[in-house]
Amino acid sequence: MKLIIVAALMASASAWTVPQVPTAVKAAVAGAAVTAGVAISPAFAGDVGAGEQVFNANCAACHAGGQNVIMPEKTLEKDALDQYLAGGRSEKSVMTQVTNGKNAMPAFGGRLSDEDIANVASYVITTSEAGWDNDE
Fold first, then answer.
1. pLDDT in tens, 2-61
2. How buried is 109 (Cβ within 10 angstroms: 0-12 exposed, 13-18 middle, 19+ buried)?
3. Rg value, the chain, Cα
4. Are 103 and 71 in contact (CB under 8 A)?
5. Over 102-129, what HEC string results?
6. Which distant-in-sequence residues (6+ apart) come within 8 Å of 74 by Cβ?
7. Measured in Å, how far apart are the chain's first and last C-alpha atoms?
8. pTM for the whole structure
9. In angstroms, how far is CA 80 from the centroid of its own chain?
10. How far is CA 8 from the centre of its chain?
11. What does the pLDDT read at residue 134?
12. Strand, coil or helix: 49
């Protein structure tokens, strides 16, 4: 009787086993997504609308309109971010700068959540791409 129960349990367990997807199939799907222009967002991609709110509450005093009242050449304009931001113009680089601060800019890592920092980074990069003059 025990043998029958064990055999039945093994049969039912194997019926529920999820098959492994071969690596070649995973690579083909990823390649097809790239070819089709479908991008998978990185884990740190934030919400631009929420980022605008965080920016207005925490960053606009020094960076209103994408400017920099302390160091006027180091704005949040696309070209300045390319030139001055450590790591280049990317959400990851903005997140690092906001979290750790640099020079006259204070660190916000202890004041803002990781989600808020990701959101403000998305807002800064998106707005720099569109141009701060277009920000409403």
1. 545 544 444 444 444 434 545 554 544 444 444 444 443 444 568 999 999 999 999 999
2. middle
3. 24
4. yes
5. ECCECCCCCCCCHHHHHHHHHHHHHHHH
6. 68, 80, 84
7. 75
8. 0.67
9. 20
10. 47
11. 77
12. helix
3-state secondary structure of 15: helix
| Model confidence at 102: pLDDT above 70 | yes
What token pair was written down for 117? 């920092």
Helices H, strands E: what count in the chain?
7, 0
DSSP 52: H
Report the b/e string of 41-52 with b at 16+ CB within 10 A: eeebebbbebbb
- Interhelix angle 48-58/114-130, rounded to 10 degrees, is 100
CB distance 65 to 132 below 8 Å:
yes
Percentages (nearest 5) of helix, strand, coil residues in the chain: 60, 0, 40
